[in-house]
Design brief:
Blueprint lengths: L1 H8 L6 E4 L3 H10 L7 E4 L8 H9 L2 H9 L29 H4 L1 H8 L13 H7 L10 E5 L4 E4 H11 L6 H11 L6 H6 L5 E7 L2 H4 L16 H16 L21 E4 L10 H4 L8 E14 L6 H10 L16 E4 L6 E4 L4 E5 L1 H8 L5 H11 L1 E3 H5 L28 E3 L7 E5 L6 E15 L4
Helix pairs in contact: 7-8, 8-12, 9-12, 14-16
Protein backbone atom coordinates (compact mmCIF):
# COMPACT_ATOMS: atom_id res chain seq x y z
CA UNK A 1 0.00 0.00 0.00
CA UNK A 2 2.83 2.40 0.86
CA UNK A 3 4.45 1.89 -2.55
CA UNK A 4 1.19 2.52 -4.42
CA UNK A 5 0.47 5.63 -2.38
CA UNK A 6 4.01 6.95 -2.99
CA UNK A 7 3.62 6.40 -6.75
CA UNK A 8 0.22 8.12 -6.80
CA UNK A 9 1.52 11.08 -4.80
CA UNK A 10 4.36 11.37 -7.31
CA UNK A 11 1.75 11.88 -10.04
CA UNK A 12 2.05 8.47 -11.67
CA UNK A 13 -1.21 6.50 -12.09
CA UNK A 14 -1.11 3.18 -10.27
CA UNK A 15 -3.48 0.32 -9.58
CA UNK A 16 -2.93 -2.29 -6.90
CA UNK A 17 -3.98 -5.92 -7.28
CA UNK A 18 -5.11 -7.53 -4.03
CA UNK A 19 -6.72 -10.81 -3.02
CA UNK A 20 -10.38 -10.28 -2.09
CA UNK A 21 -9.75 -11.27 1.51
CA UNK A 22 -7.29 -8.36 1.74
CA UNK A 23 -9.70 -5.70 0.40
CA UNK A 24 -10.52 -4.26 3.83
CA UNK A 25 -6.86 -4.42 4.81
CA UNK A 26 -5.91 -2.52 1.64
CA UNK A 27 -8.44 0.24 2.33
CA UNK A 28 -7.32 0.50 5.93
CA UNK A 29 -3.69 0.87 4.88
CA UNK A 30 -4.25 3.54 2.24
CA UNK A 31 -6.48 5.40 4.68
CA UNK A 32 -3.59 5.41 7.11
CA UNK A 33 -1.18 6.63 4.45
CA UNK A 34 -3.51 9.57 3.67
CA UNK A 35 -4.57 8.49 0.15
CA UNK A 36 -7.92 6.70 0.59
CA UNK A 37 -8.90 6.85 -3.11
CA UNK A 38 -5.84 4.97 -4.40
CA UNK A 39 -7.21 2.57 -7.05
CA UNK A 40 -7.15 -1.19 -6.63
CA UNK A 41 -8.76 -4.31 -8.05
CA UNK A 42 -9.34 -7.63 -6.37
CA UNK A 43 -8.64 -11.18 -7.49
CA UNK A 44 -10.04 -14.33 -5.87
CA UNK A 45 -6.83 -15.67 -4.31
CA UNK A 46 -3.42 -14.54 -3.11
CA UNK A 47 -0.66 -15.03 -5.69
CA UNK A 48 2.00 -16.38 -3.32
CA UNK A 49 2.92 -19.95 -4.25
CA UNK A 50 0.51 -20.10 -7.20
CA UNK A 51 1.36 -21.20 -10.73
CA UNK A 52 1.99 -18.45 -13.29
CA UNK A 53 -0.90 -19.51 -15.57
CA UNK A 54 -3.36 -19.34 -12.68
CA UNK A 55 -2.10 -15.88 -11.66
CA UNK A 56 -2.32 -14.61 -15.25
CA UNK A 57 -5.89 -15.87 -15.55
CA UNK A 58 -6.98 -14.09 -12.35
CA UNK A 59 -5.38 -10.82 -13.44
CA UNK A 60 -6.61 -11.04 -17.04
CA UNK A 61 -10.18 -11.14 -15.75
CA UNK A 62 -9.62 -7.73 -14.14
CA UNK A 63 -8.03 -5.95 -17.13
CA UNK A 64 -11.00 -3.65 -17.76
CA UNK A 65 -11.03 -2.50 -14.14
CA UNK A 66 -7.24 -2.08 -14.15
CA UNK A 67 -7.47 0.19 -17.23
CA UNK A 68 -10.32 2.10 -15.62
CA UNK A 69 -8.25 2.62 -12.48
CA UNK A 70 -5.31 3.93 -14.51
CA UNK A 71 -7.36 6.33 -16.64
CA UNK A 72 -10.04 7.76 -14.35
CA UNK A 73 -9.97 9.71 -11.12
CA UNK A 74 -11.85 7.67 -8.51
CA UNK A 75 -14.34 9.22 -6.18
CA UNK A 76 -13.04 9.86 -2.70
CA UNK A 77 -13.64 6.91 -0.40
CA UNK A 78 -12.39 5.64 2.88
CA UNK A 79 -11.41 7.80 5.78
CA UNK A 80 -8.24 9.84 6.18
CA UNK A 81 -7.23 9.46 9.79
CA UNK A 82 -6.03 12.53 11.61
CA UNK A 83 -3.66 11.64 14.42
CA UNK A 84 -4.28 13.78 17.46
CA UNK A 85 -1.24 15.74 18.55
CA UNK A 86 0.05 15.07 22.04
CA UNK A 87 -1.24 17.63 24.52
CA UNK A 88 -4.80 18.00 23.20
CA UNK A 89 -7.68 16.95 25.41
CA UNK A 90 -8.81 13.35 25.07
CA UNK A 91 -12.25 12.93 23.51
CA UNK A 92 -14.83 11.57 25.96
CA UNK A 93 -18.20 9.90 25.37
CA UNK A 94 -21.26 9.35 27.52
CA UNK A 95 -22.92 5.94 27.52
CA UNK A 96 -26.16 5.40 29.43
CA UNK A 97 -26.27 2.21 31.52
CA UNK A 98 -28.95 0.60 33.65
CA UNK A 99 -29.58 -2.69 35.46
CA UNK A 100 -31.13 -4.50 32.49
CA UNK A 101 -28.97 -6.97 30.54
CA UNK A 102 -28.91 -4.53 27.63
CA UNK A 103 -28.02 -1.63 29.92
CA UNK A 104 -25.17 -3.52 31.57
CA UNK A 105 -23.77 -4.30 28.13
CA UNK A 106 -24.16 -0.76 26.77
CA UNK A 107 -20.46 0.10 26.90
CA UNK A 108 -19.48 -3.07 25.07
CA UNK A 109 -22.09 -2.45 22.37
CA UNK A 110 -20.85 1.12 22.00
CA UNK A 111 -17.29 -0.14 21.50
CA UNK A 112 -18.34 -2.94 19.13
CA UNK A 113 -20.18 -0.49 16.89
CA UNK A 114 -16.90 1.38 16.44
CA UNK A 115 -14.67 -1.73 16.21
CA UNK A 116 -12.84 -0.64 19.37
CA UNK A 117 -12.49 -4.00 21.07
CA UNK A 118 -11.02 -7.49 20.82
CA UNK A 119 -14.54 -8.90 20.95
CA UNK A 120 -14.47 -9.83 24.65
CA UNK A 121 -16.38 -7.68 27.19
CA UNK A 122 -14.21 -4.96 28.69
CA UNK A 123 -14.08 -2.85 31.82
CA UNK A 124 -15.54 0.61 31.11
CA UNK A 125 -12.61 3.06 30.86
CA UNK A 126 -14.14 5.83 32.94
CA UNK A 127 -12.09 8.99 33.56
CA UNK A 128 -11.69 8.00 37.22
CA UNK A 129 -10.43 4.51 36.31
CA UNK A 130 -7.97 5.94 33.79
CA UNK A 131 -6.73 8.48 36.33
CA UNK A 132 -6.14 5.65 38.80
CA UNK A 133 -4.24 3.65 36.17
CA UNK A 134 -1.98 6.64 35.49
CA UNK A 135 -0.85 6.50 39.11
CA UNK A 136 1.13 3.43 38.08
CA UNK A 137 3.62 5.60 36.19
CA UNK A 138 5.58 8.84 36.54
CA UNK A 139 5.21 9.58 32.83
CA UNK A 140 3.19 12.54 31.59
CA UNK A 141 -0.22 11.41 30.23
CA UNK A 142 0.21 13.13 26.84
CA UNK A 143 3.76 11.85 26.24
CA UNK A 144 3.88 9.82 23.00
CA UNK A 145 5.54 6.42 23.54
CA UNK A 146 5.46 5.57 19.83
CA UNK A 147 3.53 6.12 16.62
CA UNK A 148 1.74 2.80 16.32
CA UNK A 149 1.34 1.26 12.89
CA UNK A 150 -0.27 0.54 10.50
CA UNK A 151 -2.64 3.44 11.23
CA UNK A 152 -0.04 5.83 12.70
CA UNK A 153 -1.99 6.30 15.92
CA UNK A 154 -0.24 8.25 18.64
CA UNK A 155 0.28 5.89 21.56
CA UNK A 156 0.23 8.40 24.39
CA UNK A 157 0.59 7.24 27.97
CA UNK A 158 -3.04 8.16 28.55
CA UNK A 159 -4.34 6.20 25.56
CA UNK A 160 -2.33 3.19 26.69
CA UNK A 161 -3.88 3.60 30.15
CA UNK A 162 -7.38 3.64 28.63
CA UNK A 163 -6.73 0.30 26.96
CA UNK A 164 -5.14 -1.05 30.14
CA UNK A 165 -8.34 -0.29 32.05
CA UNK A 166 -10.42 -1.97 29.37
CA UNK A 167 -8.25 -5.11 29.63
CA UNK A 168 -8.63 -5.33 33.40
CA UNK A 169 -5.11 -4.20 34.36
CA UNK A 170 -4.28 -2.70 37.73
CA UNK A 171 -1.91 0.26 38.25
CA UNK A 172 0.88 -2.00 39.54
CA UNK A 173 0.78 -3.85 36.22
CA UNK A 174 0.88 -0.69 34.09
CA UNK A 175 4.72 -0.38 34.09
CA UNK A 176 4.98 -3.82 32.44
CA UNK A 177 2.61 -2.76 29.66
CA UNK A 178 4.47 0.53 29.13
CA UNK A 179 7.77 -1.33 28.92
CA UNK A 180 6.30 -3.72 26.35
CA UNK A 181 5.26 -0.77 24.19
CA UNK A 182 8.72 0.76 24.70
CA UNK A 183 10.01 -2.47 23.15
CA UNK A 184 7.68 -2.10 20.16
CA UNK A 185 9.04 1.41 19.66
CA UNK A 186 12.47 -0.06 18.82
CA UNK A 187 12.84 -0.17 15.01
CA UNK A 188 14.30 -3.67 15.14
CA UNK A 189 10.95 -4.95 16.45
CA UNK A 190 9.46 -4.29 13.00
CA UNK A 191 6.04 -3.98 14.57
CA UNK A 192 4.54 -2.69 11.31
CA UNK A 193 5.10 -6.00 9.53
CA UNK A 194 3.84 -7.86 12.59
CA UNK A 195 0.61 -5.87 12.40
CA UNK A 196 -0.13 -6.15 8.67
CA UNK A 197 1.12 -9.65 7.83
CA UNK A 198 -1.30 -12.26 6.54
CA UNK A 199 0.81 -14.70 8.55
CA UNK A 200 -0.37 -15.24 12.12
CA UNK A 201 2.13 -13.42 14.32
CA UNK A 202 1.78 -11.97 17.79
CA UNK A 203 3.97 -10.38 20.45
CA UNK A 204 4.87 -12.40 23.52
CA UNK A 205 5.86 -10.41 26.62
CA UNK A 206 8.61 -11.93 28.77
CA UNK A 207 9.06 -10.41 32.24
CA UNK A 208 12.09 -10.60 34.52
CA UNK A 209 12.99 -9.22 37.93
CA UNK A 210 11.08 -8.02 41.01
CA UNK A 211 8.31 -6.42 38.94
CA UNK A 212 6.88 -9.90 38.29
CA UNK A 213 5.81 -10.29 41.93
CA UNK A 214 4.81 -6.64 42.27
CA UNK A 215 2.51 -7.00 39.26
CA UNK A 216 1.08 -10.28 40.54
CA UNK A 217 2.24 -12.32 37.56
CA UNK A 218 1.98 -16.09 37.79
CA UNK A 219 5.27 -17.78 36.91
CA UNK A 220 4.36 -21.22 38.24
CA UNK A 221 1.95 -23.92 37.12
CA UNK A 222 -0.41 -22.92 34.25
CA UNK A 223 1.51 -19.66 33.76
CA UNK A 224 0.04 -19.20 30.27
CA UNK A 225 -3.37 -20.61 31.04
CA UNK A 226 -6.75 -19.18 32.02
CA UNK A 227 -7.91 -18.68 35.58
CA UNK A 228 -7.83 -16.18 38.41
CA UNK A 229 -4.22 -17.06 39.20
CA UNK A 230 -3.30 -15.69 35.77
CA UNK A 231 -5.34 -12.49 35.93
CA UNK A 232 -2.26 -10.25 35.69
CA UNK A 233 -0.70 -12.27 32.86
CA UNK A 234 -3.99 -12.21 30.96
CA UNK A 235 -4.73 -8.52 31.55
CA UNK A 236 -1.28 -7.30 30.47
CA UNK A 237 -1.20 -9.45 27.35
CA UNK A 238 -4.73 -8.43 26.43
CA UNK A 239 -3.99 -4.75 27.07
CA UNK A 240 -1.18 -4.82 24.51
CA UNK A 241 -3.53 -6.33 21.93
CA UNK A 242 -6.18 -3.69 22.63
CA UNK A 243 -3.54 -1.00 22.08
CA UNK A 244 -2.56 -2.61 18.77
CA UNK A 245 -6.23 -2.57 17.72
CA UNK A 246 -7.42 0.76 19.07
CA UNK A 247 -4.28 2.90 18.70
CA UNK A 248 -2.62 1.12 15.78
CA UNK A 249 -5.90 0.62 13.86
CA UNK A 250 -5.05 -3.08 13.49
CA UNK A 251 -8.66 -4.24 13.41
CA UNK A 252 -9.48 -7.83 12.51
CA UNK A 253 -10.04 -8.24 8.78
CA UNK A 254 -8.92 -4.68 8.05
CA UNK A 255 -5.58 -3.48 9.38
CA UNK A 256 -5.11 -7.07 10.59
CA UNK A 257 -5.43 -9.37 7.54
CA UNK A 258 -4.38 -12.65 9.20
CA UNK A 259 -5.57 -15.55 7.08
CA UNK A 260 -6.93 -17.38 10.14
CA UNK A 261 -5.43 -15.88 13.33
CA UNK A 262 -4.70 -17.75 16.55
CA UNK A 263 -5.83 -17.47 20.19
CA UNK A 264 -2.29 -16.30 20.95
CA UNK A 265 -3.25 -12.95 19.41
CA UNK A 266 -5.52 -12.18 22.35
CA UNK A 267 -2.34 -11.66 24.37
CA UNK A 268 0.64 -13.49 25.87
CA UNK A 269 2.57 -12.40 28.95
CA UNK A 270 4.74 -14.63 31.15
CA UNK A 271 7.41 -14.12 33.78
CA UNK A 272 10.49 -16.26 34.31
CA UNK A 273 10.41 -18.64 37.26
CA UNK A 274 13.69 -17.28 38.60
CA UNK A 275 13.26 -18.90 42.03
CA UNK A 276 13.63 -22.46 40.75
CA UNK A 277 15.59 -22.01 37.53
CA UNK A 278 19.11 -23.47 37.73
CA UNK A 279 20.36 -20.75 35.38
CA UNK A 280 20.59 -16.99 35.64
CA UNK A 281 17.45 -15.25 34.36
CA UNK A 282 17.19 -13.95 30.82
CA UNK A 283 17.52 -10.28 31.68
CA UNK A 284 20.93 -10.96 33.21
CA UNK A 285 21.98 -12.44 29.86
CA UNK A 286 21.12 -9.00 28.49
CA UNK A 287 23.30 -7.14 31.00
CA UNK A 288 20.78 -6.31 33.73
CA UNK A 289 21.34 -6.99 37.42
CA UNK A 290 19.25 -9.67 39.12
CA UNK A 291 17.40 -7.09 41.26
CA UNK A 292 16.51 -4.98 38.22
CA UNK A 293 13.33 -5.50 36.25
CA UNK A 294 13.14 -5.81 32.49
CA UNK A 295 10.62 -6.68 29.79
CA UNK A 296 11.40 -8.44 26.53
CA UNK A 297 9.05 -8.59 23.55
CA UNK A 298 9.43 -11.08 20.70
CA UNK A 299 7.14 -11.57 17.71
CA UNK A 300 6.23 -15.23 17.33
CA UNK A 301 3.87 -17.76 15.88
CA UNK A 302 2.97 -21.09 17.44
CA UNK A 303 3.58 -22.54 19.97
CA UNK A 304 4.42 -26.20 19.48
CA UNK A 305 4.62 -28.45 22.51
CA UNK A 306 7.82 -30.41 23.10
CA UNK A 307 6.93 -33.70 24.82
CA UNK A 308 10.01 -34.77 26.72
CA UNK A 309 8.69 -37.62 28.84
CA UNK A 310 11.12 -40.25 27.52
CA UNK A 311 14.26 -38.15 28.04
CA UNK A 312 16.87 -39.59 30.34
CA UNK A 313 19.68 -37.18 29.53
CA UNK A 314 20.34 -33.60 28.55
CA UNK A 315 21.05 -34.72 24.99
CA UNK A 316 17.62 -36.38 24.77
CA UNK A 317 16.00 -33.11 25.82
CA UNK A 318 18.05 -31.03 23.40
CA UNK A 319 17.35 -33.46 20.57
CA UNK A 320 13.62 -33.16 21.22
CA UNK A 321 13.84 -29.36 21.11
CA UNK A 322 15.99 -29.50 17.98
CA UNK A 323 13.39 -31.70 16.27
CA UNK A 324 11.19 -28.63 16.05
CA UNK A 325 13.74 -27.22 13.62
CA UNK A 326 13.06 -29.92 11.04
CA UNK A 327 10.68 -27.40 9.54
CA UNK A 328 13.11 -25.79 7.10
CA UNK A 329 11.42 -22.37 7.19
CA UNK A 330 12.09 -21.98 10.93
CA UNK A 331 14.92 -19.53 10.36
CA UNK A 332 15.64 -21.04 6.95
CA UNK A 333 19.29 -19.96 7.05
CA UNK A 334 18.17 -16.66 5.57
CA UNK A 335 20.99 -14.85 7.36
CA UNK A 336 23.35 -15.75 4.49
CA UNK A 337 21.35 -13.31 2.35
CA UNK A 338 21.88 -10.54 4.90
CA UNK A 339 19.86 -9.23 7.81
CA UNK A 340 16.19 -8.40 7.54
CA UNK A 341 15.21 -4.74 7.63
CA UNK A 342 12.27 -2.77 8.98
CA UNK A 343 10.64 0.29 7.48
CA UNK A 344 10.79 3.27 9.82
CA UNK A 345 7.44 5.01 10.12
CA UNK A 346 6.12 7.10 7.26
CA UNK A 347 9.53 7.20 5.56
CA UNK A 348 11.66 5.30 3.06
CA UNK A 349 14.31 4.62 5.71
CA UNK A 350 14.95 1.02 6.73
CA UNK A 351 16.81 -0.34 9.74
CA UNK A 352 18.56 -3.74 9.62
CA UNK A 353 18.02 -6.20 12.45
CA UNK A 354 18.97 -9.74 13.31
CA UNK A 355 16.17 -12.22 13.38
CA UNK A 356 14.32 -14.34 14.06
CA UNK A 357 14.56 -15.22 17.77
CA UNK A 358 12.89 -18.49 18.81
CA UNK A 359 11.62 -18.47 22.43
CA UNK A 360 11.90 -21.92 23.98
CA UNK A 361 9.78 -22.01 27.13
CA UNK A 362 11.29 -24.64 29.41
CA UNK A 363 9.68 -26.09 32.49
CA UNK A 364 12.16 -25.94 35.40
CA UNK A 365 12.81 -29.69 35.23
CA UNK A 366 13.85 -29.42 31.55
CA UNK A 367 16.42 -26.80 32.52
CA UNK A 368 17.55 -28.88 35.51
CA UNK A 369 18.23 -31.96 33.39
CA UNK A 370 20.71 -29.90 31.40
CA UNK A 371 22.19 -28.07 34.38
CA UNK A 372 22.75 -31.34 36.24
CA UNK A 373 24.80 -32.51 33.26
CA UNK A 374 27.03 -29.45 33.70
CA UNK A 375 25.51 -27.40 30.90
CA UNK A 376 25.08 -23.66 31.25
CA UNK A 377 22.34 -21.90 29.34
CA UNK A 378 24.97 -20.72 26.87
CA UNK A 379 26.15 -24.32 26.42
CA UNK A 380 22.61 -25.37 25.54
CA UNK A 381 22.26 -22.49 23.08
CA UNK A 382 25.57 -23.40 21.44
CA UNK A 383 24.41 -27.03 21.13
CA UNK A 384 21.18 -26.01 19.41
CA UNK A 385 23.02 -23.60 17.15
CA UNK A 386 25.37 -26.34 16.00
CA UNK A 387 22.81 -29.12 15.63
CA UNK A 388 19.92 -27.19 14.04
CA UNK A 389 21.10 -26.89 10.46
CA UNK A 390 19.77 -26.38 6.97
CA UNK A 391 21.29 -27.18 3.58
CA UNK A 392 22.98 -24.24 1.89
CA UNK A 393 20.91 -24.82 -1.24
CA UNK A 394 17.65 -24.70 0.75
CA UNK A 395 18.87 -21.53 2.50
CA UNK A 396 19.61 -19.88 -0.84
CA UNK A 397 16.29 -21.03 -2.28
CA UNK A 398 14.64 -19.59 -5.37
CA UNK A 399 15.44 -16.01 -4.35
CA UNK A 400 19.18 -16.53 -4.45
CA UNK A 401 21.60 -14.29 -2.59
CA UNK A 402 22.62 -10.69 -3.36
CA UNK A 403 25.73 -10.51 -5.53
CA UNK A 404 27.94 -7.75 -6.86
CA UNK A 405 28.64 -7.11 -10.55
CA UNK A 406 31.35 -9.78 -10.50
CA UNK A 407 29.03 -12.42 -9.05
CA UNK A 408 30.54 -12.30 -5.54
CA UNK A 409 28.20 -12.70 -2.58
CA UNK A 410 27.63 -9.37 -0.85
CA UNK A 411 26.99 -11.11 2.47
CA UNK A 412 29.15 -13.93 3.80
CA UNK A 413 31.40 -14.33 0.77
CA UNK A 414 33.41 -16.81 2.85
CA UNK A 415 30.55 -19.29 2.34
CA UNK A 416 30.17 -18.87 -1.41
CA UNK A 417 32.33 -21.91 -2.11
CA UNK A 418 29.48 -24.03 -0.68
CA UNK A 419 26.95 -22.73 -3.21
CA UNK A 420 27.00 -25.78 -5.48
CA UNK A 421 27.58 -28.42 -2.79
CA UNK A 422 24.28 -30.31 -2.22
CA UNK A 423 25.60 -31.76 1.06
CA UNK A 424 26.78 -28.47 2.59
CA UNK A 425 24.86 -27.16 5.60
CA UNK A 426 24.84 -24.03 7.74
CA UNK A 427 23.19 -23.21 11.10
CA UNK A 428 19.50 -22.37 10.68
CA UNK A 429 20.00 -19.28 12.83
CA UNK A 430 23.03 -17.02 12.73
CA UNK A 431 23.79 -16.81 16.47
CA UNK A 432 23.28 -19.12 19.48
CA UNK A 433 21.52 -16.28 21.34
CA UNK A 434 18.64 -16.53 18.87
CA UNK A 435 17.56 -19.66 20.76
CA UNK A 436 15.95 -17.79 23.65
CA UNK A 437 15.78 -20.18 26.62
CA UNK A 438 13.22 -18.98 29.17
CA UNK A 439 12.42 -21.05 32.27
CA UNK A 440 8.91 -20.78 33.66
CA UNK A 441 5.83 -22.70 34.74
CA UNK A 442 5.55 -25.82 36.87
CA UNK A 443 8.05 -28.65 36.93
CA UNK A 444 7.07 -31.21 34.32
CA UNK A 445 8.36 -32.96 31.22
CA UNK A 446 7.09 -30.44 28.69
CA UNK A 447 8.38 -27.37 26.92
CA UNK A 448 6.91 -24.95 24.39
CA UNK A 449 8.65 -23.89 21.21
CA UNK A 450 7.66 -20.66 19.47
CA UNK A 451 8.77 -19.87 15.93
CA UNK A 452 10.10 -16.33 15.99
CA UNK A 453 9.43 -14.10 12.99
CA UNK A 454 10.96 -10.64 13.31
CA UNK A 455 13.21 -8.92 15.84
CA UNK A 456 13.43 -8.63 19.60
CA UNK A 457 13.86 -5.87 22.18
CA UNK A 458 14.49 -5.70 25.92
CA UNK A 459 14.00 -2.58 28.05
CA UNK A 460 14.12 -1.68 31.71
CA UNK A 461 10.89 -1.33 33.67
CA UNK A 462 10.52 2.09 35.25
CA UNK A 463 10.47 2.25 39.03
CA UNK A 464 7.39 3.96 40.47
Amino acid sequence: AHDMVAVEKAGVPAVAIAARSFARAWQSCVDGWGQPNTAFVTIPHATTGQQADFINKMVDEQIDDIIRGLTTIPATSGNVRKARAGGQATETFTVEMDETPEGLDAVNRFLAERDWSDGIPVMPPTPAAVEQMLKGTKRVPQDVVLVMEPGFGLATVEKIAINAVMAGCRPEQFPVLLAAIDCLAKPEMNHRDMQVSGHTEAPIILVNGPIAKKAGLNFGTTAMGPGVINSANTAIGRALRLCLINIGYCNAGAGDPNFVGLPSKFGMCIAENEEVSPWQPYHMDMGFQRDESAVTVVTVTGPTTVIDSTSRSHEDTLNNIASMMFYKNAGAGGWIRGWQSAQVGHTNKRVPYQGPYHPIILSPSRAVIMAEAGMSKQDAQAWLHEKCRISVQDAIGARGVPKDADGKWLNHPELQHLEEDPKATIPALESPEQYLLFVTGGSTHYAHFFYGTYGIATVAVEEV
